[in-house]
Amino acid sequence: MKKPAAKIREEIARLQEQLKLAETRDAERIGRIALRAGLGEIEIEEADLLSAFEEVAGRFRGETKSAHGRETATTPPNGAREAAGQSAEA
Questions:
Q1: Which residues, in sequence order, are CB contacts of 58 under 8 Å at separation 6+?
Q2: What are phi and psi of 89, to 5 degrees?
Q3: What is the pLDDT of residues 28-74, one digit of tens each?
Q4: CB atoms within 10 A of CB 2
Q5: Are 74 and 63 within 8 A, CB to CB?
Q6: DSSP alpha helices (H): ranges in 1-90?
Q7: Which element (helix H / strand E) includes 72?
Q8: CA 20, CA 80: separation in Å to the nearest integer?
Q9: Distance (Å, rounded) from C-alpha 33 to C-alpha 66?
């Protein structure tokens, strides 16, 4: 039997709230780590900081930047994919 639209809306609202809380936890965790690393004391443009974070994220995902700025996948170190919650078959 199909769910009524009202039930689906309620579920979507509940999931959106869960997502918001999860994003807040992640932001606070990353912010604390960035402050411990001294990033709060550095004057840097937001775009430059975002670029640096993207490079770090790519490094831990096993990606590298090509000469044209496009990302290419590389094989991550042993266990890195599983530690990131990805299956070895992916």
A1: 64, 65, 71
A2: -80, -15
A3: 999 999 999 999 999 999 999 999 999 999 999 987 665 445 454 44
A4: 6
A5: yes
A6: 5-36, 46-61, 80-83
A7: strand 71-73
A8: 27
A9: 28
Does the reported pTM lie above 0.70? Answer: no
- Core vs surface per residue 78-89: b (16+ CB within 10 A) or e: eeebeeeeeeee
Number of residues that make up the chain: 90
Residue 4: pLDDT above 50? Answer: yes
For 1, the 3-state DSSP assignment is coil
Q: Is the pLDDT of residue 19 over 50?
A: yes
Which one is predicted more confidently, 4 or 79? 4
- The predicted pLDDT at position 74 comes to 47
| C-beta separation of 64 from 72 below 8 A | yes
